[in-house]
Recover the amino acids of this structure.
């Protein structure tokens, strides 16, 4: 029997013992919960029946306080039991994911199994599983084999890491394990390393991992940019980098609430929780730019989502309209338009704000010219909106002392009318309130900002726009672009971004002042205005920016985008790393996909061989749909758990779903989806960043994929596949497929 087989038997035995303990602890908590619930109901009923219901009964306040304390204690006990039940049920699926053998200096070797929660045998006090956030577990993330140390409550503990082992456990079953001096993060690499124990393969995998590890452990760069080909593990690396940086928390003071992840959509945001589940347990903020808009402005405002804009660009058959949509997006997110917006902000505070003279009770309270002078005199760089709010407060502070005198005048005025002799004070107060409301409304005309209206003023006043755009090269169809603003009473995606920019520049935005690390994924799809917004919102943050120029949708992109990002974020220490090794896809899928990108672009293929992609051609839609069903069943039989049928657009996805939903179990991914499971139909632009065991690219006809942009879409679609890939078309296949 091989050494691996010996170790496998030991690991299976340990897992069985662990599962027994989890079930035992779970049974204990389930037995407790019923009793705790009854006791909680009893003490709440007792408090209701036997204590005073009014705090006016001073003599019984002590009884109320004592009863409330009992209820709170019982509630805490019940919630703790429920929390434990959830923990043990979760652990039944995957009790741990790693193990280190640690030899403490001057002591003995200890096997430390690492999972998402502690698991203690309360009879023997043996700790079967250590929480990944515990001090000793940090060794797994921070050290390779050899000397190591960690900080414990008793001080620094030194020792030696003798073994690092990782496991693939699903639903309580051990699929495989492998030993590596590094923390192998990616499922594809883990799987290969577990199945191929040759020293050559181990060297290849660990070489890839070492390159990734350099990125993860970079604590010097304020801006780290990673250009990585599809399947190079960018997202996984970024999240492990976050985990590593959190383990430096004692030095850098970086905690979960100091991190934000910028995602292209809510589906991707949800998906990344599963890339690094241990991060999902922490309070890490995940944002899309649409989320930012609704945080800043009212939820009542309707905006067009980014995906809806991409859908229009991809599906619009009217070339003129499509050109306007695309060029509007490109121009209003460009460096040139940002310059115009900055000039407009200057113009707004110097020319647009309509200050008024303020009178109250016959007295001159505020002079319009002095108010403007105060606004423009800004030696300590306070945002415009905050200066306006200061002006409002100062005016109101001047009015406050005069109110008593005003009330006397109003009472004297009301007393002249005999019919009001019994309501002098109340009527005078009512008049005062109405006066104050009218006055406050007048003040707010120049101290509050209606961002949508001032933005409309910029776009609709052509004389103003062209004056502010002087010296800037504008698109040939600029008038069409300006006319395109909110034609359907829905704010376009690019106009929503412009409004966010105006808001954060004019008002300042300190909601995220505690954020120290920002992770931006799919950076190639963002425009200069996105990074200008991030710069304003996260002023004190460092950045990890990930992208792949080959996976751009809806615009042109090259390596220059990273220079723009460096210029905008303007960090003193920035690093650019390129990752050329792709290991998500099999060798055959990778080779096939490479025909859709520039042949001069370097992609190193991972030597994992599986069957080549299939090209399926049929004569009718009905025949093609039946073939899709057949391939889905074949993929499932092969063992594919996640399967994607990728369409070019949402419209095509919805039509296909309607035809297939009654014939086979299948889901459709829409803008409202936040989870992926089983077999799903999904438009290409929503599949970006995701991966599936098997992929069917639907409708790869030449009339559907014939432009250079379509070529990139095919690259994105095909590189989603881990093991199985097939392309389906009616009639002539796309010219790019060959």
């Amino acid at each position: 029997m091989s050494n691996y087989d010996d170790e496998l038997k030991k690991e299976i035995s340990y897992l069985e013992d662990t599962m027994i303990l989890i079930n035992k602890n779970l049974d204990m908590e389930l037995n407790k919960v019923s009793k705790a619930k009854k006791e909680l109901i009893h003490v709440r009923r007792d408090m209701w029946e036997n204590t005073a219901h009014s705090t006016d009964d001073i003599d019984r306040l002590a009884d109320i306080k004592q009863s409330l304390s009992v209820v709170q204690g019982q509630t805490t006990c019940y919630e703790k039991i429920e929390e434990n039940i959830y923990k043990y049920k979760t652990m039944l699926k995957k009790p741990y994911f790693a193990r280190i053998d640690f030899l403490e200096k001057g002591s003995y070797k200890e096997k430390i199994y690492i999972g998402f929660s502690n698991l203690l045998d309360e009879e023997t006090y043996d700790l079967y599983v250590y929480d990944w956030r515990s001090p000793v577990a940090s060794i797994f993330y921070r050290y390779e084999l050899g000397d190591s140390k960690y900080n414990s409550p008793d001080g620094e503990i030194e020792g030696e890491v003798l073994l690092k082992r990782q496991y693939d456990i699903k639903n309580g079953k051990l699929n495989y394990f492998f030993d590596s001096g590094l923390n192998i993060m990616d499922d594809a690499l883990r799987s290969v390393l577990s199945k191929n124990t040759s020293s050559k393969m181990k060297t290849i995998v660990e070489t890839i991992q070492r390159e990734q590890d350099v990125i993860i452990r970079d604590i010097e760069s304020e801006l780290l940019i990673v250009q990585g080909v599809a399947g190079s593990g960018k997202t996984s690396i970024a999240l492990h980098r976050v985990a590593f940086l959190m383990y430096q928390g004692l030095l850098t003071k970086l905690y979960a609430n100091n991190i934000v992840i910028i995602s292209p959509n809510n589906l991707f945001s949800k998906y990344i929780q599963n890339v690094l589940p241990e991060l999902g347990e922490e309070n890490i903020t995940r944002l899309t730019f649409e989320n930012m808009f609704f945080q800043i402005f009212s939820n009542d405002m309707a905006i067009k989502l980014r995906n809806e804009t991409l859908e229009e660009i991809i599906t619009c058959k009217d070339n003129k309209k499509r050109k306007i949509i695309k060029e509007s997006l490109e121009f209003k997110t460009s460096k040139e338009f940002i310059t115009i917006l900055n000039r407009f902000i200057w113009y707004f505070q110097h020319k647009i704000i309509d200050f008024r003279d303020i009178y109250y009770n016959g007295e001159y309270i505020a002079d319009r010219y002095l108010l403007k002078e105060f606004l423009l005199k800004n030696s300590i760089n306070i945002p415009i909106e905050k200066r306006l709010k200061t002006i409002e407060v100062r005016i109101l502070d001047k009015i406050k002392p005069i109110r008593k005198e005003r009330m006397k005048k109003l009472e004297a005025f009301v007393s002249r009318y005999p019919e009001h002799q019994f309501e002098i004070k109340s009527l005078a107060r009512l008049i005062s309130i109405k006066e104050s409301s009218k006055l406050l409304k007048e003040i707010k005309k120049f101290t509050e900002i209606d961002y949508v209206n001032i933005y409309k003023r910029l776009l609709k006043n052509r004389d103003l726009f062209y004056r502010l755009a002087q010296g800037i090269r504008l698109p040939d169809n600029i008038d069409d672009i300006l006319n395109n603003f909110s034609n359907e009473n829905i704010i376009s995606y690019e106009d929503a971004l412009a409004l966010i920019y105006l808001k954060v520049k004019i008002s300042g935005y300190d909601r995220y002042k505690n954020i120290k690390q920002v992770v931006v994924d799919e950076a190639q799809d963002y425009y200069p205005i996105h990074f200008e917004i991030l710069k304003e919102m996260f002023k004190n943050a460092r950045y990890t920016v990930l992208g792949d120029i080959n996976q751009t949708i809806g615009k042109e992109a090259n390596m220059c985008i990273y220079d723009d990002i460096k210029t905008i974020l303007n960090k003193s220490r920035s690093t650019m790393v390129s990752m050329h090794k792709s290991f998500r896809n099999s060798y055959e899928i990778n080779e096939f996909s490479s025909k859709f990108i520039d042949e001069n672009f370097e992609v190193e293929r991972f030597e994992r061989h599986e069957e080549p992609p299939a090209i399926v051609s049929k004569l009718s839609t009905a025949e093609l749909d039946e073939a899709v069903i057949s391939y889905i069943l074949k993929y499932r039989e092969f063992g594919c758990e996640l399967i994607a049928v990728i369409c070019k657009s949402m419209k095509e996805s919805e039509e296909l779903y309607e035809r297939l939903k009654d014939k086979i179990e299948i889901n459709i991914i829409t803008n409202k989806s936040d989870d992926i499971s089983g077999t799903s139909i999904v438009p290409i632009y929503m599949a970006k960043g995701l991966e599936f065991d098997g992929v069917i690219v639907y409708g790869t006809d030449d009339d559907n994929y014939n432009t250079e942009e379509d070529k990139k879409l095919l690259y994105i679609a095909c590189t989603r596949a881990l093991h199985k890939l097939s392309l389906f078309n009616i009639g002539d296949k796309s010219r790019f497929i060959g």
Notes: The CA atoms of residues 308 and 600 lie 33 Å apart. The chain has 28 helices and 23 strands. The chain has a mean pLDDT of 83. The longest helix spans residues 3-50.
